[in-house]
């Protein structure tokens, strides 16, 4: 009974963290649906029209892979992006589960062995945070390089180079991840995949509406005619302004991000300083039961406070 208030406090903190994560996921999904709706209204369903029914390859493991993909999505794993991860997805997942075990060990210092029940929950939270960071960094790199990519395509088209060959040039000359993605697109087009369909596949992998706009512009130009160079140049200017606006938002939030970093680092720096000045002063935190409770509670509150500040900053920039 003596640990009941602490258990309730930790439960409330964890619930608040899950609510923040859920709000971020919900807002991202809503923004994606809103952009997809704008694309549909602009194109009026004329982007991709299949004129011939193509037989689909039968995968005997499809009925097993679909539930697995849904289960992995709970941990934030996107199998479409898995080839682009810095390490195999299962390695990242195991590391995230191990990190969750460390956090749960700190929680058990506060609430006792009942804290082990939070291990699955913490595994999901940490895994989603890790994979979300990987996805965000790659999408940000693709978005920042996209205006230069469009400018290269415009120059190639104006000197008479076909779009397919321009894609191959971008795959060879642009840095990663854009170079690798456009090399993949050029290979898909070379074996017969429609260009707009290959670009929409890239938009689905990167979760960037800008690539959807790019595919829409190419599709409408191919169907209705017009100057491709002028269309892509206008699109490049619009996307460059979007990138600049996003960079301005990050610059304006620099003070808040620095404050969050300093506030999170102060307890660590203070603890190390006390340990150097008076080595035995903090031993009570590691040698007594009450010390374990205080230390575990402090670490849990520090982690949740850092995640909360990070979530607030990211939501303000989204």
From TrEMBL:
It is a multi-pass membrane protein. It holds the Pfam family T2SSF. GO terms for cellular component: plasma membrane. It comes from the Bacteria. It is found in: Cell membrane. The keyword ATP-binding does not apply. Residues 150-270 form the Type II secretion system protein GspF domain. This is Tight adherence protein B. It comes from Acidiphilium rubrum. The lineage of its organism: Bacteria, Pseudomonadati, Pseudomonadota, Alphaproteobacteria, Acetobacterales.
